Amino acid sequence: MTLLPNYKDIVELIKKGATIEAQEKIMELREGALEVQEENIRLREKVKELEDKLNKKENVIWEAPFYWRKDGDKKDGPFCAQCYDKAGNLIRPLDHKNGVWTCPTCKNIYKDSSYRDPSPQSGSHGWDAFT
Ligand SMILES: [Zn+2]
């Protein structure tokens, strides 16, 4: 894109009575404005294209404690929440098969819904015999 003529310069030219030169500058200005408009349209198209791509590719959903990527009907994951929140990286945590997951990158420890606390809880179990 060429540098647009300065509006002040045009005013100066008119003041000096140099109307031909001023007209030339005004023409330049109009051409410049058209260029800017066209570029604006191109950029808008590009932004839309990238947004569409992003939405399609990174259809990331949150299901505590992880992120998942939805790909049509399929669900890919899980991915470390901390890494995604921090840097937008989809990192697969390691499954320790007991409901515990660890992220190889940020070392965060996750417990999913299958995790059972190893220390016995005093709950309602003792009362089952009476009902
Ligand atoms: Zn992580």
Overall description:
It is a single chain. With about 130 residues, the protein is an alpha+beta fold. It folds into 2 domains: about 5-55; about 60-110, no CATH class. It has 3 helices and 6 strands, in the order H-H-E-E-E-H-E-E-E. It has helices at about 5-15, 20-55, 80-85, and strands at about 60-65, 65-70, 75-80, 95, 100, 110. The strands form 2 sheets. It has a 3-stranded antiparallel beta sheet with strand order 1-2-3. Strands 4-5-6 form a 3-stranded antiparallel beta sheet, with no helix packed on it. A hairpin with a 4-residue loop joins strand 4 (about 95) and strand 5. The N and C termini lie far apart (about 85 Å). The structure holds zinc ion. The site of zinc ion has 8 residues, from helix 3.
Outline the fold blueprint.
Elements lengths: L6 H10 L2 H39 L2 E4 L2 E6 L2 E6 L1 H7 L6 E2 L4 E3 L6 E3 L20
Antiparallel strand pairs: 1-2, 2-3, 4-5, 5-6
Helix pairs in contact: 1-2
The structure holds zinc ion (ZN).
Zinc ion binds next to helix 3.
